Amino acid sequence: MQERVLYKLILLLGSNLPYGELSPKQIIEEADKEIIATLLPDYIEIDSLEQVAFATDIIQTEPCGTFNEDADFVGNESGLTPVFSNQILCCITDKTPLAALEEMLKIENLFGRKRTYKEKGKAYQSRTLDIDIIEAYRADGRADNGADKNTQWVEVKEYSKRLVLPHPQKETRPFVKELLAMLPKIC
To answer: pLDDT digit of tens for each residue in the chain (187 aa)?
Structure first.
């Protein structure tokens, strides 16, 4: 039997625009389900999702950084960038961080995400869904049926054009620290 490598991913989800009938908070709740279904290995036997995934509360946060809204932006009455709904999801997967990133881009697209801010001078734009991998850990040793409290996790560091881990803006966003503090020690 081939040894399976498991990863623990710490994902940051954010939304400040509705998609169809879904509010930003509802988008995140639905995205959680898609992420878990996509990332969770089908061979792991679990009694409950809490063994392999944990989601923090969804909090409201003010936008960070410079925003460049385009003509299609439907803002609030003040014309200001709407507040964000943000959450951290910790999930066990057998996908490498780079493979997981590709899956997260598909899920963003599923919820109407249009990545256009890179063409606009690196300013951010409001979005229906943004999923960032904040941190990643690799199970140290054999983990055929998942991770347990004895699993040792080693931080994954990656520096490529597609992915930088840990996320370079993790320390500059106060709400990320607030959300990370909500994670239980098992994450």
So the answer is: 456 788 999 999 999 999 999 999 999 999 999 999 999 887 777 666 666 789 999 999 887 765 555 534 444 444 566 888 999 999 999 999 999 999 999 999 999 987 665 544 555 678 899 999 999 999 886 655 566 667 788 999 999 988 999 998 888 888 899 999 898 876 7
Q: What's this model's pTM, rounded to 2 decimal places?
A: 0.84
Domain 7-182: give its CATH code.
3.30.70.560
DSSP state letters, 57-109: PPEEE---S-B---TT----TT-SPPPEEEEEEEEEESS-HHHHHHHHHHHHH
- Domain ranges for the chain: 7-182
